[in-house]
From TrEMBL:
This is Transcriptional regulator, ArsR family. SUPFAM superfamilies: Winged helix' DNA-binding domain (SSF46785). GO terms for molecular function: DNA-binding transcription factor activity. Signal peptide: none annotated. It comes from Nannocystis exedens.
Amino acid sequence: MAADLDRTLAALADPTRRGVVDLLRRAPRRASEIAEALAMTRPAMSRHLRVLRKAGLVREDAQDDDARVRVYRLERAPFADLRGWLDEVEEFWGDQLQAFKAHAERRARGRKA
């Protein structure tokens, strides 16, 4: 899972690719629509979509009526894995902050006595 998470984070490190994800979370889109929405050339967008595909974050489907048209949509699994990891990190810090709070309260009570 660590390698998958590394690929996900590396792909999402680029603001353009996060913009692509933001667009695709609303609805599947053709590459040309994504490029236009983000004011990019189609070749540049193609490179970003390739990174997202290799990371498993998006999938590319051909249209039934025209195999040349590709529609991109988000894949849920990598985002669920990322959410799980973030929940673990958040839980760790929550536990650490709770322990620090308890320590600080004990010290404060000790000074009053």
